[in-house]
Amino acid sequence: MTVRRGPNPLLYFILFLPFGATSGFVTVALGYLATHQGISISAVAALAATTLLPQTYKFLWAPVTDALWTRKGWYWTASVVCSLTLTGMGFVPIRQENLGLLEMLIFVNSVASTFLAMSVEAIMAHATPEAERGRAAAWSQAGNLGGSGIGGGIGLWLALHLPQPWMANGLLGAMLLACAIAVAALPEPKKESGALAERGKQVIKDLRDVVWSRNGALAVALCFLPMGAGAASGLFSGVAKDWGASAEMVEWMNGWFSGAVMIVGCLAGGRLSDSMNRKAAYPVAGALLALVALAAGFAPRNPVTYATLCVAYSFATGVCYGTFTGFVLEVIGGGAAATKYNTFASLSNFPIWYMTQIDGWAADKLGPGAMLLVDAMAGAAGIVVLLGVVALLRTLRPTPEPAVATE
């Protein structure tokens, strides 16, 4: 008997790099440059939250990629828009009066990146056999989170070493656009036959069936809980001066090296997801992240602590994202994969969004150390709530539904 193998998961890593790198530029490079121009940490947190906002509501337009055009066509178009808007940010001086224009460019960039991710997620869900879903999830999240760190590091290094900001942004945009070449090696998923209205009905039915299942309901609950959000990392560049970290340390610990550590964390999360119950793997990873934030919150504030915090928090965040994606891929199966995956992916951005705001408020009002303690306590509270949800679902739905068939 021949065992079906999916595409090389390294392709998912390459194709997700632009998705992570564009947000990484905002949170790391732009965040560092803005605070050194006198912009408040809460205003930097607002910029970071702007890049998250479209990710929170992308399930509203996810059916478009399932019902219209090709996934590869969506990827190419979104990749071009992401690179153009990233380049455009380089032409806007970082001043208080220009924050509105920067937010608009960040917002458009993030909307485009949702289509970029949706197209790859749909291909991945259809092309990956059950036994390889954890591995595929790990490589996709490695591209996402690793790209965030690498993109932020490259963006900051270029901004600090090139004479004009637009040169840094333009070069980074061109590098990310080149990643789109890899999409040609993936299979194009077959769309539902019939008229557009019929395809739309099938998309909604697929989504309803998944969300109504016990595993689907648990996945929805996971999406709203703060454990595993990893939101504090978006503010590490803004609070770096409180630990005495230099620009070079921020560049490395929030950029190059952090990106590599996130990749390792994602791969570890994928292995964990494939080796145990995928529903349990995510809260285990969330507990690890909360412990890292708790320990760092009580540690002395110096450059060594800052570097350790960035590395440990990045690794734990990677494990969280790898395990969450593995569970979601198991739940959604095939069918209208972009819609189903992005329903969960969209909802999972709510805790990242609200925890970014909460962490930013805590850093401004209570100090960076308190920010980490707030982040840790929120993660612990999420685990407690999750245990209650599991008990409730077992009472209301004692027998889990069979897994959704894959294609």
Q: End-to-end distance, in Å?
A: 18 Å
- How many individual β-strands? 0
CATH fold topology: Growth Hormone, Chain: A
Coarse shape: globular
Task: Give a verbal description of the structure.
The protein is mainly α and 407 residues long. It has one domain: MFS general substrate transporter like domains (Growth Hormone, Chain: A). The protein is 75% helix and 0% strand. The chain is built from 15 helices and no strands. The protein has helices spanning 10-35, 41-57, 62-67, 71-89, 99-127, 133-161, 165-178, 196-212, 214-224, 247-275, 278-298, 303-332, 337-347, 349-365, 368-396. Helix 2 (41-57) runs parallel beside helix 5 (99-127), helix 2 packs antiparallel against helix 14 and helix 4 (71-89) runs antiparallel to helix 5 (99-127). The longest helix has 30 residues, at 303-332. Mean pLDDT is 82; it is low at 402-407.
Brief synopsis:
Helix content is 75%, strand content 0%. By secondary structure, the chain is mainly α.
SSE topology:
Elements: H1 10-35, H2 41-57, H3 62-67, H4 71-89, H5 99-127, H6 133-161, H7 165-178, H8 196-212, H9 214-224, H10 247-275, H11 278-298, H12 303-332, H13 337-347, H14 349-365, H15 368-396
Which properties best describe this structure?
Growth Hormone, Chain: A, 15 helices, globular, 407 residues, mainly alpha
